[in-house]
Amino acid sequence: MPQSPITPTINTMVDVWEAYRDELEGMERQARTNLDSSVTLVNTVAAHILNSGGKRIRPFLLLLSARLCGYTGHDHYQLASLVEFIHTASLLHDDVVDDADIRRGRRTARKVWGNQISILVGDYLYSKAFCQVVEFRNHGINEVLGEACKKMAEGEVLQLYYNGNPSMPESEYLKIVEHKTAGLMAASCRMGAILADASDAQQDALFRFGLHLGIAFQVADDTLDYTANGEHLGKALGQDLREGKATLPLLHLLHHCSEQDRLMIIDRMETRTLTEEDLARFIRMMEELGSINYAMDRARSYIDAAQRDLDQFDDSTAKRALSVTADYMVTRDR
Length: 334
Prior knowledge:
Elements: H1 13-19, H2 21-34, H3 40-50, H4 57-68, H5 75-97, E1 102-103, E2 106-107, H6 109-113, H7 115-133, H8 139-162, H9 170-195, H10 200-227, H11 230-233, H12 239-242, H13 248-256, H14 259-271, H15 276-288, H16 291-309, H17 317-328
Antiparallel strand pairs: 1-2
């Protein structure tokens, strides 16, 4: 797909998906081709989550970043599909760590096949991705992806360390978000630029773009856990609180509510005894004390930074698509 000037038709994510439908379909075809284990159950479990939907944000960022930097080849399909394998592996592992029953509105792999199979298929997808990434024979890509995976593991450990701890500083929450979520998005953007032989300055700008977008994505996602339509979200509202996770809206609430309410929230986190009545009350408190607005304002500030990261690039369809994608991170409802 060659570069082309900005067109007024790309104003929403629907426009973006339509303009880059062929790119996404190319990535999906490659992902299906790569799912070729001689052990049928591995393919079945991996396909269970790969076919359950998902936004494909990480591979899409790689595709768009490559096109933004003038890439005209087709190898980005393979690289993007491997990024999705790594993301899928992390979800299989996360669901075991979190004892999750539902993912994207469907039963998690661990509920269907058990924890052991979920962990091992996640391991397979990680291994498969790295086996095929080395075929690019590009040290820059290897280094970026390896660092992102290392930070994802560190972020998961840090989140477990703070699980059930309502006194977690906001800075540590943001560190978890950066490591667990934003790091792979940033790596995806940089790898697209590396594939296009972009300058170091362009690679750095796209890495920052992905990092800022990824933080905004997760902060908004954590806020949706208290505000979204549960059916659209694909999971029950308040799931983070039920699991003892203190995300940004809750951290703000704990700093601004009465001591009595604070002790009640802490009790529900520590004892895992949250009721629907409790949740409804806490959400009302978040709305009244500005916790929802605070979290979304922080998310929007990261999107503003991401938009500035694109300033050094010439106008093009890919740039416009990345800009609209960034805005979508804080306007989506699921």
